[in-house]
Amino acid sequence: MEQRLRDLPLRIDAVVERVEDASAPDPIAERLRDLGFVAGEPVRLVARGPLGGDPLVVQIGYTRFALRRAEAARVFVRQAA
Q1: Averaged pLDDT, 58-64
Q2: What is the CATH number of the domain that holds 39?
Q3: What is the pTM of this model?
Q4: For the chain, what is the domain count?
Q5: The domain containing residue 55 runs over which residues?
């Protein structure tokens, strides 16, 4: 089942399905794809910030990124089997 990365439970393995463009062109979505948020890549939500959940710490491969919830909302994932 597809869900947004911001809503993924902590430390659950998932796979990137797609990055949604909010507008055309969308520099944030382009940057996310440049960082490795592309279809088929394994991803994991590692931690959430204390107040309101910002930022989110997300791991792609061996690299960790801090993303705002609004940025993570553009990434659609499915939980790994």
Answers
A1: 94
A2: 2.30.30.90
A3: 0.93
A4: 1
A5: 2-79
